[in-house]
Amino acid sequence: MASVSTAAADGRRTLLRTASAWAIGLAACTAPLTALAQLPPADASAPGPIPPVGTTPTQAQPAETLQQAGTTPDDDSQREIVVTGSRIAVSGFNAPTPTTVVGAEDIAANAQPNIFTTIAQLPSLQGSSGTQVNTFSTSSGQQGLSSFSLRGVGAIRTLTLLDGQRVVGANVTGVPDISLFPQLLVTRVDVVNGGASASYGSDAVGGVVNFITDSRFKGIKGNVQGGITTYGDDAQVLVQLAAGDSFLDDKLHVVVSTEYDNEAGIGGGEFGIGLANGRDWFKQTTLINRGVLNDGSPQYLLRDYAQSITFAKYGLITNGPLQGTAFDQNGVPFQFQYGSNGVPTRNGTGAVTGCYPGFCLGGDLSGNVDAGRSLKSSIERINSYGRIGYEFMPDGEIYGTVNIGQVKTSNQPVNGQNRPGLTIQCSNPFVPQSIQTACTNAGITSFQYGTSNAALGNTKVHTDRRQYRFVAGAKGRLPVAGTDWTYDIYYQHGTNYTDIDVDNILLSNRFNQAIDAVTVNGVVVCRNTTARAAGCQPLNIFGGNPSEAALRYIMPEAGPFQRTRQTQDVVSLNFSGSPVDLWAGPLAIAFGGEFRHEYYRVRADPYGAGFAASPAGGDYPADPVLLTGGNNWYAGNYKNGQGAYSVKEAFFEANLPIWDSEAIGRANINGAARVTDYSTSGTVWAWKVGGTWDLPIEGFRVRGVTSRDVRAPNLSELFAAPVTTTLPNFFDPFRNTNVLAIQNSIGNTALRPEIARNTTAGIALANPAWLPGLNISFDYYSLKIKSVISSIAAADIVQLCFQNVLPETCSAFNLNNSAGPNFINVQAFNLAEIDTRGFDIEASYRWQRPLGLPGTLTLRALATHVIKYVTDTGLPGTLPNDTAGVNLGATPDWKWLAIQTYANDQFSLFVQERWFSDGNLGNQYVVCQPGTCPASTSQRPTIDRNFLPGAFYLDLGGTVNLTDQITAYAKVDNVFDRDPAKSTIFNNPALYDQIGRVYRAGVRFKF
Q: Which of 39, 600, 824, 906 has the fewest CB atoms lying closer than 10 Å?
């Protein structure tokens, strides 16, 4: 028997060496390799104890506690766990900041193709992005970017770490992309629900999300998963493989992984109302502004099937005596059906009687463009990871890691390229003869025209993010003066390349020239002779049959592009130990320092960025009809820019035991301070003071912490690539006249760090003897952020200076510029404030052999209640806006997640409920009915309906152990195929499920 085991071990080791060499080779390649979803251990069907909810794993715990925290100790059960909410790394320490732990078993049971989705479901995470968010965008650069937002304060105020270390940003805002993380080796994710700037520095205002990987994994494990929606789209394929072993008498540890994930996404539907593949919940719900403030009726009306009066699918005459004439795909005129029994006034106003301003209800909805928006971006993720560590001495290791990944996404922002408000000459040879005759009879020579431009096809945005991250470090423990001290020293270099390419999008000025056609010598040509000489091809926009030459002229094959390179270099030193024993226990301290350098450079095409910034040539030849300063595309006008800053900081943290006795329990005070010097904004301090008290009542702990947290301005806010816009009639209050001005949207290097005050206080019950396996916690939180960095409009910038409210804006403009054009630099300023508070509740219970059945029943629930979320712009004449309970946003009143799992040696069952409460469109509205409404104001506008329902989603799953090493599993998300609520613009993908029912199945293995 021993010889068989030895042979099996030798065979496994040989296979492991082969897999290790293969994966390390992949990691070394310049072509990034696969990034993938979730790491399910082979024994996930029989989970061990779960961690006490709302607590942080402590250091140097016994093996069973390590398993509770979601780690895989193997034969290294005495290895310490780093407390994410603190830098102190000594035995028995409990951080006062509440932390939610999501273990590998939880991640595996949820069976998502991306670990991001599992973590984003936690109630305290509000407003996270992902593949369902930013799908309507062309120019943001954040399509498909998976990033977390704690407390709803945004991804830029949530610090995401990998093994306690920073990760290079995948966007100029500085946020990393979770899709680029090595997900298969993640053993747990710690979510710190509170400020942690004193421990980790900038960005940890809302909290910290820390991914912990298994650096001592031994064996081979993998996962193969497929999925599809009930509508037959978003087909998913996920493949994961990891291997690890120890060599040289267990001193050399090698771990490698590679992952691949492909999710087809959900594209847009056709023009009109129908969404992709039969989804029927889109009703073109629109918030209509009547424009009447004091007639006893509400100013705003929420209505379904709203249809614009300014365009149709293949064209609509929108004013004058021919108003209401539309054109079919073949260019044949017909009378447009407005809906609401609307009748065009056929005068210069373009109004339609019986309809609302700008909209009718029902009628011909075929030209609606919103149904074309992608419900989910497609995503292809490739990732490879390798770690090698050598124990050069007992309790001392040097190590290096390599993480190379690539994420490609694609989305369709909208159907067509809608252009209302066009002026067409009646003599245009593409105008049907019947319409030319009608023009003559009516005595007009031109008319206003609007079209969805369905004939031009749909725009697609493609992003390609590539990350190369390398870490070298040393960590361990050394005896100093009779006590053990831990050290953690590392250098990290990360580079991220982001390429954005836009297909099938028009150049606005070429379009304008192409639609203005005339006949010369019997040939239809562009009217403008300069444009004609430069290659202008006439475009027929009456119907859906433009010439190929015209399409290529207005939409060249070489579309908008942006090429961004970001780098991050970090040197970090951290030490922790207990120098002395005091009356109630050892004094624990931690101290260290960090240097960080961030840099970015972005380059764009000359049609968007401007010819001076990006010399023309090749695929982007100079054209006299185009603006030399850029902004020529219909959308996607990317700009050039670059910038860098450096950070030097040092921190000190201490944990002071106060008392330790059977009579009054055990208590400690924890405090930390960090001084940071930014090359752009100078020195700033962060600190925290808190403590825990283990009551003499068994299992009860009281905790609380208050902190001063900071967020420094990011590269985008400091050095944003400039965008130029012409303002032809800008009001100058200093001279009481209108002037021509140039608006430059730029970064602001004078920005200061945001300052936050973060307070949490709570009580927890952990595993009492009278009910083993029970854990409950309640934590109140309050977060106030001052000097919030936010952009303000050009008119506000001038007014704030004119009224002497914000003098620093006076340097941002010159409206009487004798040396050149008048200009306003639209910048971000430290002007706004955010004030939010609420509480978190977590509970879990583990029941061994429930009702005498073999196995374990695990119950877990988490909930967050947002009491208020007030944003104050800081602008004169505005009131603070409370968005708690606004279901168009990210902060519903209540959000909870409940999970029930039963597992034994043969199978497991998984049930999950996700829910958030009913809400509204906005707390500023006054709801009233006709005849009862007060006067509507900008601060308190009236509305007839102000309600958006909450949602309940049920997920079901299970596993079957085919062998000791192989587990099959299946999962159904959104079992009831719950549709999202309707909204004024589109549904809120950060809150509502827009995909519908999803089926997943796969196989996990571990040898």
A: 906
| Residue 1003 near residue 966, CB atoms below 8 Å | yes
Task: Give me the phi and psi of 12, to 5 degrees please.
Answer: -65, -40
* In contact, 112 and 106? CB cutoff 8 Å: no
Q: Write out the E strands in 426-482.
A: 446-451, 460-480
- Cα 274 to Cα 137, 370, 928: the distances in Å are 20, 10, 32
DSSP state string for 730-761: EEETTTTEEEEEEEEE---TT---EEEEEEEE
Nearest CA to 504 among 457, 455, 543, 463? 457
Rounded Cα–Cα distance for residues 941 and 926 (Å): 6
Strands 158-162 and 207-213, by their bridges, are: parallel
Residues 6+ positions from 773 with CB-CB distance below 8 Å: 49, 767, 845, 846, 847, 848
Closest by CA position to 215, among listed 467, 385, 420:
385
Under 8 Å between Cβ of 575 and 486 = yes
Three-class secondary structure of residue 282 per DSSP: coil
Contact criterion met (CB below 8 Å) for 189 and 102:
yes
What is the predicted pLDDT for the residue at 986? Answer: 60
**Residues 710-739 pLDDT 10s:** 999 999 999 988 777 778 788 889 988 888
Structure tokens at 69: 């925290």
CA dist 51 and 70 (Å) reads 8
Closest C-alpha to 687, from 677, 676, 702: 676
Q: Which of 409, 604, 626 is nearest to 510 (CA)?
A: 626
- What integer pLDDT is reported at residue 12 of this predicted model? 40
Q: Which residues pair with 782 in a beta bridge?
A: 759, 837
> Exposure of 12 by Cβ count < 10 A (0-12 exposed, 13-18 middle, 19+ buried)?
middle
Q: Which two tokens stand for residue 117?
A: 């989705």
Q: Is 609 helix (H, G, I), strand (E, B) or coil?
A: helix
Partner residues linked to 404 by β-bridges: 384, 468
Helix, coil or strand: residue 370: helix
Give the whole-angstrom CA distance, residue 899 versus residue 914.
9
Listed as own residue / partner, the contacts of 60-68 with beta carbons closer than 8 Å and 24 or more positions apart are 60/90, 60/91, 60/92, 68/103
Q: Return all residues near 229 (Cβ < 8 A) that are at least 6 apart.
A: 266, 995, 996, 997, 998, 999
Residue from 387, 593, 399, 638 nearest 502 by CA: 638
Say if strands 737-745 and 823-826 run parallel, antiparallel, or are unpaired. parallel
Between 92 and 251, name the one with better pLDDT.
251
Question: 101, 170, 44: which is closest to 600 by C-alpha?
Answer: 170
Q: For the whole model, what pTM was predicted? A: 0.89
For residue 606, report the phi and psi dihedrals to the nearest 5 degrees: -70, -25
Q: How far apart are CA 233 and CA 235, in angstroms?
A: 5
Joined tokens for residue 637: 């006008």
Query: What is d(CA 241, CA 224) in angstroms, rounded to the nearest whole number?
Result: 9
Q: Tokens 């940071």 label which residue?
A: 676
Residues in CB range of 964: below 8 A, 6 or more apart: none
Question: What is d(CA 222, CA 36) in angstroms, rounded to the nearest whole number?
Answer: 11
38 has a pLDDT exceeding 70: no
Query: CA 194 from chain center: how many Å?
Result: 19
Pairing outcome for strands 998-1006 and 219-229: antiparallel
Residues 6+ apart with CB under 8 A from 486: 80, 89, 90, 475, 476, 477, 575, 576, 577
And the tokens for 495? 């580079």
Residue 925, Cβ density class (10 Å: 0-12 exposed, 13-18 middle, ≥19 buried): buried
Calpha distance 621→605 (Å, rounded):
11
969 and 111 in contact (C-beta within 8 Å)?
A: yes
CA distance 276 to 253: 49
Say if residues 367 and 454 touch (Cβ distance below 8 Å).
yes
Q: What is the mean pLDDT of residues 230-236?
A: 96
Q: Could you tell me what percentage of the chain is helix, strand and coil, using 3-state DSSP and rounding each to the nearest 5? A: 10, 45, 45
